Prior knowledge:
Blueprint: H1 2-5, E1 9-12, H2 16-28, E2 34-37, H3 40-50, E3 54-58, E4 60-61, E5 64-65, H4 66-73, E6 81-85, H5 90-99, E7 103-106, H6 111-127, E8 136-139, E9 142-145, E10 150-153, E11 156-159, H7 162-173, E12 179-180, H8 181-189, H9 197-211, E13 221-224, E14 228-231, E15 235-236
Parallel strand pairs: 1-2, 1-3, 3-6, 6-7
Antiparallel strand pairs: 4-5, 8-9, 8-15, 9-10, 10-11, 12-14, 13-14
Helix pairs in contact: 2-6, 3-4, 5-9, 7-8, 7-9
Amino acid sequence: MDTLKNKxxxxxxxxxxxxxxxxxxxxKEGFFRIYKAGSFAQGLSxxxxxxxxxxILDVMLPxxxxxxxxxxxxxxxxxxxxxxxxxxxxxxxxxxxxxGADDYIVKPFLPKExxxxxxxxxKRVYASNASEQLPVFRLGNQTINLESAMVSRxxxxxxxxxxxxxxxxxxxxxxxxxxxxxxxxQAVWGDDxxxxxxxxxxxxxxxREKIEEDPSKPAFLLTVRGLGYKLLAxxxx
Length: 237
């Protein structure tokens, strides 16, 4: 757990009181590499220069929004992201998760809940993969390296996001067998995984764009209607 507390945390929120409160509670929990920003531009600059391991993003920012910021971050980073929002609509939540966010909390929130959610994300993304050597395997002309979270095809490399990686790890562990949507949501979002099925579909579609020759006619990551998904892997090393 101590190694997780060494991770860099970026807080992007336009309210100074919220930034200070989050920082105070994170430091109380043992985090110390904390960076703060009050706008889209400041958050993007901090992400480029400090290279944080996880970001806490407010949806409403004075010069943009957290959704757009996440889309921009994804052009150069796959760090996990936790959204904060004063709006609790399911559409906003699913939109944020579909963009690749790892979790979504509605304001007002309990600081302890935020630190627990953040720690849960760090455990899933960083701790779960640290204790085991993950495989490299082939899907047609694609090479999937779960250790480096990279897909290689035609001399090009395509990085997997944290959630795409978690989905593929779960599917690979059960290759050739059906993995239910509930089990995949549990593997990616943990105990609080209810209602993430639509977000799962978005991530599966993006995985197919990276591992399938024709994503519209998948040959390796198959949908088992009404149940879940199945991965047909070929060889590993």
